[in-house]
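Readers outside the structure-tokenisation community will struggle with the description of the input data as it stands. Showing the layout once, in full, would remove most of the difficulty. For illustration, here is how one protein appears when written out as sequence plus structure tokens:
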Amino acid sequence: MTKWTARPAHYVAACLALMAPVAAHAQDGLVDVADSGDTAWILVSSAFVLLMTMPGLTLFYGGLVRAKNFLAVCLQVGAIASIVSLLWVLVGYTLAFGPVTNGWIGAGTNFMFNNLGNVREGYDIPENAFALFQMAFALITPALIVGAWVDRSRFSWTVTFCALWSLIVYVPVAHWIWGGGWLAAKLGTLDFAGGIVVHTTAGITALVTAALMGKRTGFPKTMMIPHSPALTLAGAALLWVGWFGFNGGSALAANDDAASAIINTHVAACTAALVWLLIERIKLGKATSVGFATGAVAGLATVTPAAGFISPGGAFILGIAAAVICFPMISVVKNKLHIDDSLDVFAVHGMGGITGSLLLAVFMAPSLGGTGDPESYSMVHQLIGQAVGVGVTIAWSAIASVILALAVNLAFPMRVSEDEEREGLDLASHGERAWELD
């Protein structure tokens, strides 16, 4: 046994360590102590959500684009994730989750993560762990939008737009629903893990910005097939696994709610992927790997707002709804609306998030195995809250995104020249090739 030799510095450090937690809450005589199991789960879940972005989303999107634009997509996602993370520490967290004042935006008391509590109020986890988990959500949301404009967006416009968008669109909506703002407090709008806050905001923004940016050169006459379905499948697999942290972590505790959310997430993804393959087989004659990956992501997006509120049976129905609704929406956007949403962000994420957010009101009913209070749950009341939440988010995301996109365009043109587009963004914008095959 090694003997510890006491020194004055050791005594001072020990005294400070003992005094620190008491000083934090000396005014009420209580010491907040985080639950180590819940804290570990939130830290792991944060890593899972970051895994979804880098490398999950980069591989998923990267495989879907043409080879000459692979690095550009990866770099856009990485740069967005990096700058939004810094903005979250600086001002994003306090505006989204700071103390509620008027219900529209959080109080600015936690700039640079200052004044965070030992434990997040109402939970058993440190507030910095909560802030970290929410950071992962904040950074993946604008990164999702990249899929709408791949092959043609200018890097400087993309990063600037997404950085500002995270503060102007994402942060207020997160506060309204997750931060104790007016949608949650007054209307009871629910969103377990991001069907409205993440997928609806990103999907609507993708649709309007793709319309503003215009079609890719040659679209729709030129076939623009994915250059590597294998990478897309690998990315989808990482998204699928990471989504367990995305939804399961949103229980903010290592408990049965987290387990239920993960089960429902997996059920919906499996169902949507298989139904998507069936639709492809009927309509196209062949089931594809890209279809399997896309269907799974549609199912994941659709179950996200309801994952912790419904039964596995409800998740199964949501998986079917995801495939049946999102699959034809791809054609509607590109062939009916004539909007070149390159990687179908609106059809998959936007429509999935909206569908799940509305159907939450149905499958949350206790008679269907949901978590609604058997004595007081009102499907009509909840549906109104969900519909208003979705409608307000659609309007705010669309209007703010159009104004912001055009404003940033004054400083940085939103798309590259036609020659640069034909050459490919990897070389034209970054001077690199993803694959040297010579």
Notes: The chain has a mean pLDDT of 92. The chain has one domain: 31-414. DSSP finds 15 helices and no strands in the chain. Residues 66 and 227 are 5 Å apart (CA to CA).
